[in-house]
Specification:
- The protein folds into 4 domains: about 170 residues, P-loop containing nucleotide triphosphate hydrolases (Rossmann fold), CATH 3.40.50; about 60 residues, Helicase, Ruva Protein, domain 3, CATH 1.10.8; about 120 residues, Zinc Finger, Delta Prime, domain 3, CATH 1.20.272; about 140 residues, DnaA, N-terminal domain (GMP Synthetase, Chain A, domain 3).
- It has a 5-stranded parallel β-sheet, with helices on one face. It has a 3-stranded mixed β-sheet with strand order 6-7-8.
- By secondary structure, the chain is of the alpha/beta class.
- A hairpin with a 2-residue loop joins β6 and β7.
- The longest helix has 21 residues.
């Protein structure tokens, strides 16, 4: 007897057996029980989530011969149910929209639809990948779809509903199939392996479910390939050897070296992955996947249910997450995603990959504009510090090491800031606290401003004309709200912060309508901007090009 692949052998036979699509199954069962079955359905969703399976179950429910009317629980044993399962029922016509997408095929369907079913209650047309039909074929369907014979039902399935014309969609009841969660896929994989009496390591299930990427059929196909290797028990090592899954320890090792700012180690770890058979694109994909895990753990904690990881992987990811901050991980992921396209379309993918990984590794040598402005305006030359959180264990050890020479230093208490004069007198102390609490970038941006008014709990600070860019930067990314909170704590009362340009920086009257500036004038104006000059001098840089945002 011919071998049946797992995806077919364990295909769901009833509504209750469908995995991960309970709301849709429940709705269709209720429609059958209340005799409110529509004449046309549109099932949408990614591949392998149960669209065609649900269409067959619905067809069996409508045409089951063991009862006198449509039933929500087909017997799966009568001639109609068995033929539908095999795709051979004369009254359930399954059509591939990719190969039968012309007007002539749809006209033939319309001509045959008027004839009553041979033995079932309904003649059911299941059109898979319906988005592949031509515009003419869609238009040929419209009339019969709007007013079909009472014995005809249509079930359309597609992975790209946006390509199905609106006039077709408006004549159907649409159901969107969700991607199946990793937990449900893992549970189904365990069930099948036990039914097949195949030994396996439990640590194999989670990475296999993760590789399925929400598709039950993909998960079962991967399991089929693994079983075909002929080795038992099934292990994670087999997953790496036969399915191209990257070695998790090597990926963790590469990320650890990036987090430790170990440039040589980063390049060596990359070389190790490439010599093991991975391509540059596969390394990029793996890093995106693993860094996403670190980002989620950093945001929600290692016990989150948002991740499909073994206990050991959770522990390892939690340790690695301490080497990064969330902003750094977000940047890394987006940069890797941009690199993927470049790596696929270049003759030097290794150079691009190495360059970006070293960019991550040596991130402490790169400044953002806020830090640069702060350092230049305060006259400081302190090297930027890589954003890294120190664990409580490290902090305790460092404190113990420094204990013999540590001195006690407490932050001086500020007097009550009740009026404008007291705020002006203590302005430098407030700026120092803002720099310590909110970062030197925020403190540096505010350093050019001076308190100008303090009325009804609103503190107004004025910026000179040369600091317009600093004022605009303070208004973004929630900096104003952070400063307000800090000032409120130190003033002992709610403080609202308002930013304005100094009076001498404002024109006395409305300027006349400006003439359109030439490209040269715009360039000169930009090059003479104080903020731009500050950045160029701080970086010792040269402007190579200017692009105008439209």
């Amino acid at each position: 007897m011919a071998y049946t692949v797992l995806a077919r052998k364990y295909r769901s036979q009833t509504f209750d057996e469908v995995v991960g699509q309970d709301p849709i199954a429940r709705t269709l069962k209720n429609a059958i029980k209340t005799d409110r079955v529509a004449h046309a359905y549109l099932f949408t969703g990614t591949r392998g989530v149960g669209k065609t399976t649900m269409a067959r179950i619905l067809a069996k429910a409508l045409n089951c011969l063991s009862v006198d009317a449509p039933t929500a629980e087909p017997c799966c044993k009568c001639g109609s149910c068995v033929a539908i399962n095999a795709g051979e029922d004369i009254d359930v016509i399954e059509i591939d929209g990719a190969t039968n997408n012309g007007v002539d095929q749809v006209r033939e369907l319309r001509q045959n639809a008027i004839y009553r079913p041979a033995r079932g209650r309904f003649k059911i047309y299941v059109i898979d990948e319906v988005h592949m039909l031509s515009t003419g074929a869609f238009n040929a369907l419209l009339k019969i779809l709007e007013e079909p014979p009472s014995h005809v039902k249509f079930i359309f399935a597609t992975t790209e509903p946006n390509k199905v014309i609106a006039t077709i969609q408006s004549r159907c009841q649409r159901f969107d199939f969700n991607n199946i969660s990793g937990n449900l896929i893992a549970e189904q994989l365990r069930f099948i392996l036990k039914k097949e009496k195949i030994e396996y390591e439990d640590d194999l299930i989670w990475p296999l479910a993760k590789m399925a990427n929400g598709s039950m059929r993909d998960g079962l196909s991967l399991l089929d390939r693994l079983i075909s290797a002929g080795a038992e028990p099934l292990t994670v090592k087999l997953l790496e050897e036969y399915l191209g899954c990257p070695n998790s320890e090597k990926i963790y090792g590469l990320i650890a070296r990036i987090g430790d700012s170990n440039a040589a180690g980063t390049l060596s770890a990359t070389e190790d992955l490439i010599t093991s058979g991975l391509s540059e694109v596969q390394i990029v994909d793996a890093l995106i996947d693993y860094m996403r895990d670190l980002m989620v753990i950093k945001s929600t904690g290692p016990d989150t249910e948002l991740l499909i990881l073994t206990a050991e992987q959770r522990k390892r990811s939690g340790e690695l997450a301490e080497k990064f901050d969330i902003a750094g991980l977000v940047y890394n992921i987006t940069a890797l995603e941009k690199l993927r396209w470049s790596v696929k379309n270049t003759d030097t993918p290794r150079a691009l990959l190495d360059a970006l990984l070293l960019r991550f590794t040596l991130s402490e040598h790169f400044l953002n504009v806020d830090q640069l402005l702060s350092q230049l305006q305060t006259g400081g030359a302190q090297a930027p510090i890589k954003k890294k959180q120190i664990t409580s264990h490290e902090a305790t050890g460092a404190a113990a090491a420094e204990a013999p020479k540590a001195t006690t230093c407490t932050q001086p208490e500020l007097p009550a800031l009740t009026d404008l004069q007291s705020i002006k007198d203590n302005w430098q102390s407030l700026l120092r606290i803002i720099g310590e609490k909110l970062g030197p970038g925020t403190g540096g941006l505010l350093r050019t401003a001076v308190p100008s008014r303090f009325e009804d709990g609103a503190l107004t600070v004025a910026f000179p004309a040369s600091a317009e860019m600093q004022m605009k930067m303070l208004e973004r990314n929630g900096r104003t709200e952070q400063i307000q909170s800090l000032l409120s704590d130190n003033c002992g009362r709610p403080i609202r912060l308002e930013l304005e340009m100094a009076a001498d920086a404002l024109p006395d009257r409305e300027p006349a309508p400006a003439q359109a500036k030439t490209i040269g004038q715009k360039r000169n104006e930009l090059l003479n901007d104080p903020a731009v000059k500050t950045v160029i001098m701080g970086l010792d840089a040269t402007i190579t090009g200017i692009e105008e945002e439209r």
